[in-house]
Amino acid sequence: MSVLAWTPAQSHRRKVARLQLAGSAFCFGLMAILARKLTLPGMGFTAGHLAVLRFGVGALISLAAFRLFPGLYRPSNYRLLVTRGISGGAVVVLYFYALAHIPAGEAGILYNVFPVFAVILSLVIFKERPTIHLWLAILAASLGVALVLSHGHLGSGVGFGWGELAALGAAVFAATSANAIRAVRHTDNAATIFFFFCIAGLPVVLPFALTPWPGGLGPWALAVLMSLLAYGGQILMSQAYGTLSVSEAAVWLQLLPIVQYLLAVPLLGERATAPGMAGVLITVAGVAYGTTLGHRGRTGRP
């Protein structure tokens, strides 16, 4: 006789995973705000500087964690771990480049088309079958994002330059990374995945950081804080991918550009408009709908 596979323990893990993705969205959103601020005139950091610092701080934290918790470092699937690190390096440097050239809200929204790409890839790689509710949720959330992008910050539509292209390029690599994380979480823990993300990504971004580095305690303190937020966001996201499908995670990841959009208003002075806020509400509604009805009931023994 068929029974639903979602046991109370599994339901609890899914709720925790959703909270982890929400926390990841907040960390990454605030990270982007600080990255945008640090690349403004007078601060002295470039996209390459910030990418190297993010990977360097992350690697040091990982090494400290491995020393404190023996057995935490357990690499298994080296091919996927390195693939995730290389694609992640491309994501970071392209995204920081976008943040240095266009408003943080716009960069976040363009970059966040990656969950849609990730779902498409997951159909091929994992043979996942998103429900119609998930597709509708992704569509609603994406429409909300598009509304913010078209009218929320720019008022008269969007022009495409190198900054916009960099954000979209980051989205393509991020989709690859999302599926790599989902695959490697079957064999490796989040801490190990993050460590390889740092050490395999560092050679990718290092050539972009050869210009003179800035000085000043204040900017460096913000840069370290940015790196710590990136660490928190990455660990939370990797943990969540061990429980949720790529398609359900894609719905929750639509929170990221919304958090970024809202934080950019008070922290960077970027402009919010009524159409932009309508896009925010549509996106949040899509997330709620996909979370409530989006998972496919499984049959058979748990």
Please describe the topology of this protein.
Blueprint: H1 8-38, H2 47-68, H3 78-101, H4 104-111, H5 114-125, H6 132-152, H7 162-184, H8 190-205, H9 217-241, H10 246-252, H11 255-268, H12 274-293
Helix pairs in contact: 1-9, 1-11, 2-3, 2-8, 2-9, 3-4, 3-7, 3-8, 4-6, 4-7, 4-11, 5-7, 5-10, 6-10, 6-12, 8-9
What does this structure look like?
Helix 3 (78-101) packs antiparallel against helix 7 (162-184) and helix 3 crosses helix 8. The protein has 12 helices and no strands. Helices cover 74% and strands 0% of the residues. It has a domain at 8-128 and 160-244. The protein has helices spanning 8-38, 47-68, 78-101, 104-111, 114-125, 132-152, 162-184, 190-205, 217-241, 246-252, 255-268, 274-293.
Which tags fit this structure?
302 residues, 74% helix, 0% strand, globular, disordered C terminus
Estimate what percentage of residues fall within beta strands. under 5%
Total helix count? Answer: 12
Sketch the major β-sheet.
Answer: none
The helix content is over 70%
User: What is the string of SSEs from the N terminus onward?
Assistant: HHHHHHHHHHHH
Nearest-angstrom radius of gyration? 19 Å
Structural class: mainly alpha
Shape: globular
Mean of pLDDT: 82
Low-confidence stretches: 152-158, 297-302
Distance N terminus to C terminus?
Answer: 12 Å
Number of strands: 0
Quick rundown:
The chain is an all-alpha fold.
